[in-house]
């Protein structure tokens, strides 16, 4: 499709003005970043895989009644999504200790948590997306108490869906992060899942071997990121059942 006005460019995606009012074209880049963009690279095919995987997860959420911004995929790198006002929070759901939680609390990586734990980070790259509490969120007006109740409900519903989908293909959903958007229908505000859901925003481990199938492969130099993402896509049926090493995707 013809290029439209660029609205925003982030580390992994570019947003363009959509073809219809209230829509945005979301373009998935091949750029990979870690440690707040201190580590960078371009991974051939990564954007294609994330586009298809995010489409798969968002479409699944739609089918079970979890509202989200996805409308349709446009091509191998772009999807049409609803324009929304992003709540300035990263919403993190943790099922097992890993990453920053293990470092902060001294819990061995891979320890199953007593229940899913939801954390919030303030979206600000310059500050390193610091961890915040509901008290901070209320005090600074980032979200109301009703918003927080709805955000928590959405996060746990996504966790139930994603955990089940991954368990069925032999993958443990360790943790993930989502973003939440506000859409307005007349005077009525609705919260929806936005941004993306992909191996960029999840920790995914093979249940039997513990092999990492997410961006930790890039963070920790554990091998080919494309191979890891392709394996997730293959197991979920987004890739053909063959020994594919490049993201040759089915339509």
Q: Topology, please?
A:
Elements: E1 6-9, E2 13-17, E3 23-28, E4 31-34, E5 39-42, H1 46-63, E6 70-73, E7 78-82, E8 85-86, E9 89-96, H2 99-105, E10 112-122, E11 131-132, H3 134-139, H4 145-167, E12 171-185, E13 188-194, E14 202-206, H5 216-219, H6 225-236
Antiparallel strand pairs: 1-2, 2-3, 3-7, 4-5, 6-7, 8-12, 9-10, 9-12, 10-11, 12-13, 12-14
Helix pairs in contact: 1-6
Task: Please write the CATH class name of the largest domain.
Answer: Alpha Beta
**Could you list the spans in which at least 5 consecutive residues all have pLDDT below 50?**
242-248
- Number of β-strand runs: 14
User: What name does the CATH topology of the largest domain carry?
Assistant: D-amino Acid Aminotransferase, Chain A, domain 1
Structural class label:
alpha+beta
Largest sheet composition: 7 strands, antiparallel
Helix content: 25-40%
Note the quaternary state here. single chain
Overall number of domains: 2
CATH homologous superfamily identity of the largest domain: ATP-grasp fold, B domain
Q: Using only CA atoms, what is the Rg?
A: 18 Å
Plain-language structure description:
- Helices cover 28% and strands 33% of the residues.
- It has 2 domains: 90 residues, Phosphorylase Kinase, domain 1; 122 residues, ATP-grasp fold, B domain (D-amino Acid Aminotransferase, Chain A, domain 1, 2-Layer Sandwich), CATH 3.30.470.
- The strands form 3 sheets. Strands 8, 9, 10, 11, 12, 13 and 14 form a 7-stranded antiparallel sheet that branches.
- Helix 1 runs parallel beside helix 6.
- About 3% of the residues have low confidence.
- It contains 6 helices and 14 strands.
- The longest helix has 23 residues.
- The protein is α+β, with helices and mostly antiparallel strands.
């Amino acid at each position: 499709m013809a290029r439209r006005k660029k609205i925003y460019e982030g580390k992994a995606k570019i947003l363009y003005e959509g073809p219809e009012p209230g829509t945005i074209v979301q373009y998935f880049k091949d750029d990979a970043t870690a440690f707040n963009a201190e580590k960078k690279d371009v991974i051939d095919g990564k954007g294609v895989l994330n586009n298809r995987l995010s489409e798969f997860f968002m479409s699944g959420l739609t089918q079970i009644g979890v509202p989200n911004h996805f409308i349709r995929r446009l091509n191998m790198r772009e999807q049409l999504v609803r324009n929304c006002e992003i709540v300035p929070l990263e919403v993190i759901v943790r099922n097992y200790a890993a990453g920053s939680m293990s470092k902060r609390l001294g819990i061995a990586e891979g320890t199953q948590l007593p229940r899913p734990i939801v954390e919030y980070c303030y979206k600000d790259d310059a500050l390193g997306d610091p961890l915040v509490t509901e008290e901070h969120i209320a005090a600074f007006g980032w979200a109301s108490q009703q918003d927080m109740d709805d955000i928590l409900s959405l996060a746990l519903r996504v966790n139930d869906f994603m955990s089940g989908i991954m368990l069925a293909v032999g993958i443990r959903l360790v943790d993930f992060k989502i973003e939440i958007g506000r859409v307005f229908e007349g005077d009525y505000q609705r919260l929806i899942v936005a941004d993306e859901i992909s191996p960029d925003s999840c920790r995914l481990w093979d249940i039997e071997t513990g092999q990492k199938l997410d961006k930790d492969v890039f963070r920790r130099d554990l091998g080919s990121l494309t191979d890891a993402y392709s394996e997730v896509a293959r197991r979920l049926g987004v890739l053909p059942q063959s020994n594919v090493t490049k993201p040759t995707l089915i339509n």
